[in-house]
Design a protein that fits this description.
Elements: H1 12-23, H2 28-38, H3 40-44, H4 51-76, H5 80-92
Length: 96
Amino acid sequence: GAMDPTNAEALRPQAERLKIWLLSEDGFLESLHMFFRENKDYFDAFAEEHALHYTELHKVFAARFESEIQGWLADEGLGEEHLEAMLQLGREGGDP
């Protein structure tokens, strides 16, 4: 069954795995790098006329991040509420 998200301690192993996945080259970091490579031209030189495009990029990025996280949670058999508990755990643990 699903774990109780109110029991944050029980989520510590998942929180560790989440951190590893977020920072691993073949995890989320890879899609981050891909995103920047795809949009390299916009990041190389900040231009006023690109301002609207940055907003769009942010939306696309946020959506991609969202779906990556959702996929990871699904793989772990977790939900949004577990994610919140894990983030809370990270904050309380004094981790950046």
